[in-house]
Specification:
The longest helix is centred in the middle third of the chain and has 44 residues, at 187-230. The protein has 407 residues and is α+β, with helices and mostly antiparallel strands. β2 (24-28) and β3 (37-38) form a beta hairpin. Residues 1-5 and 14-72 have low confidence and may be disordered. 33% of the residues lie in helices and 20% in strands. It is built from 8 helices and 15 strands. α1 (76-85) packs parallel to α2 (114-123). The chain has a 7-stranded mixed sheet with strand order 1-8-9-12-13-14-15. The chain has a 4-stranded antiparallel sheet with strand order 3-2-6-7, with helices on one face. It has a two-stranded antiparallel sheet with strand order 4-5. InterPro entries: DUF4236. Residues 3-56 form the DUF4236 domain. It comes from Candidatus Halomonas stercoripullorum.
């Protein structure tokens, strides 16, 4: 059974790349045209320069592009061809399925027809491939990062906090209208201008005062955090708890992770209980782009590769948590970190906690790691230098263990 503490942190994941949710947004044009990328499309008017023909509408097979005066004789594909030949651009959203096939959509969600798709691929093959290559790199980059989370672990000697500047710009001072000579001989006009100027000045004064308050609150919070992380963490449990919470929440976690933690009878010992993601949350494919084609293909990872990825990831999580503890809490001399996951319970039909590892580390042991060479460190092997409870095969199959308890 898992043991629970009084302090719980739910660490949200960073950016997740979904293949078939909202799609990949591109503004596609001929070679040399401006290209952009985003999930919501590019909100701009596309048209053939100099003609007034606007190519943005819902097509049902018989409609023509908005603004086309050649009643019913210009097909959507012909209008698109003319648009691209003239140097115009078309907002396009791509939906990619699990097999790497692409569905082409207008930025309002309506699909392009087969003829339009062929025209688009013919005129924009290389820009499309460049954008898909970047998207493919992002997909594989997310996969690679799961197994290398430990490489971003801070050194245990990096104490303290560097205050962050307030980045919000102050409101712009309004331009007040000056009185002309004739306004003074026409009082109603003068009063209107003066009243409008007073309203502008009042609105600016209020906005500037609010900005000053926000800046003062920010600066005060940054100063308090600096004091807490430089002095409070040496003796104050509340300061230690808040510092650890903030530091853990600032990590860009690839998958949602929950952490319970508590201190022992004094401030030099801490234990953390990590609610790990499950193995099925790991990606199962590696992506690539076939030569001269406008599509993505995927290669399914083997069961052994997936287990290795999961093994590396869950150990990387423990490594990052230990790194945050020893870097931000200089009073802590020993940390116990255990990781568990939820698995089916055949005895009850429900689920139960299965502990995968439990690690006990002293500060002296932790400081022996070369934090300037973490790319050479294997977190799975690194924890074996500490007091470790783990029953794992070479291929990453875990069996139950009894975790260390907070004494």
């Amino acid at each position: 059974m898992a043991f629970r503490f009084q302090r719980r942190i739910t660490l949200a994941p960073g950016v997740r790349l979904n293949l078939s949710k909202r799609g990949l947004g591109l503004s596609v044009g001929p070679r040399g045209a401006s290209l952009s990328m985003g999930p919501s499309g590019v909100y701009s008017h596309a048209g053939i320069p100099g003609t007034g023909l606007a190519y943005r509408q819902k097509h049902n097979g018989s409609q023509q592009p908005t603004g086309c005066s050649d009643s019913g004789r210009t097909s959507p594909a012909a209008a698109l061809e003319a648009l691209l030949l003239e140097g115009g651009s078309l907002p396009v959203r791509l939906e990619i399925d699990a097999k790497g096939s692409i569905r082409y959509l207008h930025d309002d969600g309506t699909p392009l027809g087969d003829e339009e798709t062929r025209v688009l691929r013919r005129h924009a093959r290389e820009p499309l491939r460049e954008q898909l290559a970047e998207y493919c790199h992002q997909l594989n980059g997310g996969l690679d990062r799961l197994g290398r989370l430990h490489e971003e672990t801070p050194s245990p000697h990096s104490h303290g906090y560097a205050t962050q500047a307030f980045t919000e710009a102050p409101p712009s001072r309004p331009t007040l209208r000056q009185l002309a000579w004739w306004h003074r001989v026409w009082p109603p006009a003068q009063r209107r201008i003066e009243q409008n100027n007073r309203q502008l000045q009042t609105a600016f004064d209020t906005a500037y005062r609010d900005w000053e308050w926000r800046k003062a609150d920010h600066d005060a919070a940054e100063f308090a955090r600096q004091q807490r992380e430089s002095e409070g963490v040496l003796y104050d449990l509340d300061a230690m708890e808040q510092t650890l919470r903030e530091r853990l929440e600032e990590i860009d976690w690839p998958r949602e992770t929950g952490i319970d933690f508590d201190f022992g009878g004094n401030i030099d010992t801490i234990a953390a209980d990590i609610d790990l993601p499950n193995e099925e949350e790991m990606p199962g494919r590696h992506w690539s782009i076939p030569a001269k084609q406008v599509r993505l293909t995927s290669r399914k990872l083997s069961s052994t590769q997936q287990r290795k990825l999961y093994r590396d990831h869950v150990h990387g999580i423990a490594f990052r948590v230990l790194g945050a503890i020893f870097a931000r809490l200089p009073a802590v001399q020993e940390a116990k970190v255990s990781g568990y996951r939820q698995i089916p319970d055949t005895a009850t039909g429900g689920t139960r906690d299965q502990y995968l590892y439990s690690i006990k580390v002293s500060r002296t042991q932790w400081e022996k790691i070369h934090f300037n060479k973490l790319e050479r460190v294997d977190p799975v092997t690194a924890v074996e230098a500490f007091t470790l409870r783990r029953d794992m095969t070479k291929t990453g199959i875990f069996r139950d263990i009894e975790p260390f308890k907070l004494v």
